[in-house]
Design goal:
Neutral Protease, domain 2, Immunoglobulin-like
Length: 602
């Protein structure tokens, strides 16, 4: 069968994409299917709910057989199916159309004819006058694009509009930013930093796996997000987030999504391709896909020279502290978190911190431990870099997914690289919920945990005179450390978002969604006010919290917890050994990275 699409948007302010699918050569009845999810975002989003005005020409019988499937009788000659898609959800996982642009995430717009998913396709775009189309699909003619399969079509997002193009060539390959939205940033600096990120990732894998690369960047009033594709990524960022730590975090997003061109889009678990677009695709290895990518995110910033080794350790220390504050770390393993992502990760609620972990967050920290475990076991002759290259050489080039377990799995290949059995490591940290014992692993690279007080801004400071009162940490840290709550006051009301297990607030019966209106009889309305009052209290003191719960006024006594101990900071040991120096230099990229090797350790 031959399949082609026509995509138009004659009234973009209506948020309606108009789609026509032409199919010829059908030998019998057809099933037109709308995907239920998009690769890289593991939640059934039921894109068929936005489909309307389904029509078939010539007029033949058709019926909808389930939530996302339309069965059409055998046509006499070419079949033309048309429908509209309402697109007014501005995320990287969905599509968006308004009077300023159209962003197309293909899974949410293009139906597929069952049985034709692996065949070539053509798409013709009809944009409003003055708009242009930017995508990585090859274009044999203006506004005509080709894809070798449906997978490729939905893996090439499109930005349609009057967006700005920022272009450069790197390693002889075109790279671009397509920027929609207004914001203040230095374009030359952005290109220079992105070049460094791309180069650092390329050195690890000894080359780039694409013919061109496109960053689609949406600048918004607030928010942050990204979604990976084979030769592009969709990014969303706060339009003012291009200075200081916010810019550092934006570059981390760029590094993360770009690293996925290897780890996710080419190196992948076997269950993640070929895709079933109508149902869940289960794997216990999403922590490898997302967690190891998160681990390499900051390493790439370090190895590219964007951040210093000291800043890398600071960011790593913050990640460790955030993870260790979660009660859920004792209740859900990495494998469980990966498998259950379809029902849990994208649907957090007030109980999430108490029962779950993120395979991004813990996966990155287990990646750290695995890296240092391999370095320690091989006298720094091997590392996680070598494991990534082994995965790339065995699974990336032929594009065959690695097995969940057994021969050829990530665990088996890690053992090959390390030259030792790692089943206990994976039992404890991937399949189990043991605490992550960071200290002995960090010692491999001569890094230790050092207590350091904090200022109100969360920055370390020298200790004051003996007996001096500790400085107040950031407001959120005060509420979490002394009460065990996370709260927000954006709506003009001070509401509890989460109550952590076995904390003073939890024991007193404070609940998520409670509105705090007074403390000891005096009104409080903002997080800073509450944090200031709580910090002034003495350990063991009972504080009277006046709250509204479903419009009922209550007073609860909370026994205030102790002043939180200063967070441990990561720092290099005073006198590292030669082995620690070598591991540190290799880890941080302080010496030219030698190409990783694919042979197992001796």
């Amino acid at each position: 069968m031959n399949v082609s699409y026509r995509l138009s948007m004659p009234q973009p302010h209506s948020h309606l994409f108009e789609v026509e699918v032409r199919i010829s050569g059908a030998a019998g009845p057809l099933e037109l299917v709308m995907a239920s999810w998009t690769p890289g975002s593991y939640l059934l989003r039921e894109f068929a709910r936005h489909v309307q005005d389904f029509r078939v020409e010539p007029a033949v019988d058709w019926t909808k057989t389930d939530k996302s499937t339309w069965r059409v009788a055998a046509p006499d000659g070419e079949l033309r199916v048309s429908y509209r898609v309402y697109a007014n959800e501005l995320t990287v996982r969905t599509s968006h159309l308004d009077s300023t642009h159209g962003y197309v995430n293909g899974a949410s717009v293009f139906m597929f004819a069952r049985g034709t998913e692996t065949g070539p396709l053509e798409v013709t775009i009809e944009p409003p006058e003055g708009w242009r189309v930017t995508t990585t699909l090859p274009s044999p003619a203006p506004l005509r694009y080709r894809a070798e399969s449906y997978d490729r079509l939905v893996d090439a997002p499109m930005e349609i509009g009057t967006h700005e193009l920022i272009e450069w060539e790197q390693d002889g390959l075109p790279h671009r930013y397509a920027v929609w939205g207004r914001g203040e940033f230095d374009r030359d600096r952005l290109v220079a930093d992105t070049r460094r990120i791309v180069d650092a990732a390329k050195r690890l894998f000894d080359g780039l796996p694409y013919r061109s690369y496109l960053f689609i960047l949406h600048l918004l009033p607030e928010g942050r997000g990204g979604l990976e594709h084979a030769d592009s990524s969709a990014l969303q960022a706060d339009r003012w987030a291009f200075e200081g730590e916010e810019y550092e975090n934006f570059l981390a997003l760029v590094a993360h999504e770009h690293f996925h061109v290897w780890n996710a889009k080419r190196i992948r678990p076997a269950p993640l391709g070929p895709f079933d677009y109508t149902a869940e695709n289960y794997t216990t290895n999403l922590w490898v896909v997302e967690g190891l990518t998160t681990y390499y995110t900051d390493l790439i910033l370090r190895r590219s020279g964007i951040i210093t080794p000291e800043r890398y350790l600071a960011r790593l220390g913050e990640s460790i502290a955030r993870f260790e504050s979660l009660p859920g770390r004792g209740h859900q393993s990495l494998a469980e978190s990966s498998f259950d992502t379809w029902i849990r990760f994208y649907r957090p609620d007030e109980h999430t911190p108490n029962a779950q972990i993120s395979y991004y967050q813990k996966g990155a920290l287990v990646g750290l431990l695995l890296d240092l475990e391999i370095r320690g076991a091989t006298a720094n002759r091997r590392s996680l870099d070598d494991l990534m290259l082994v995965l790339w050489e065995r699974y990336g080039a032929p594009d065959v997914g690695y097995p969940e377990s057994g021969e050829g799995s990530v665990e088996a290949l890690a053992a090959e690289v390390a030259g030792k059995d790692l089943s206990e490591f994976f039992d404890r940290y991937s399949r189990g919920t043991e605490e992550l014992g960071f200290a002995p692993y960090l010692q491999v690279a001569g890094v230790g945990l050092v207590a350091a007080p904090e200022t109100a801004a969360g920055e370390s400071t020298a200790a004051g005179p003996a007996g001096a009162a500790p400085k107040r940490p950031a407001d959120a840290a005060v509420l979490e450390g002394r009460l065990g709550i996370r709260a927000g006051d954006r709506t003009g009301r001070l509401k509890v978002a989460n109550v952590l297990t076995d904390t003073p607030a939890w024991k007193a019966g404070i609940d998520a969604a409670d509105e705090i209106v007074a403390l000891d009889g005096f009104r409080v309305a903002t997080v800073p006010e509450l944090a200031k009052r709580v910090w002034a209290g003495k350990p063991g003191e009972n504080l009277a919290f006046t709250i509204f719960r479903r419009d009922e006024l209550l007073t609860l006594l909370v026994e205030l917890g102790p002043v939180p101990a200063p967070k441990a900071r990561l720092s290099r040991v005073a006198k590292p050994t030669d082995a620690q120096e070598a591991a540190w230099a290799g880890w941080m990229g302080l010496v030219p990275l030698e190409p990783a090797i694919a042979e197992p350790a001796d």
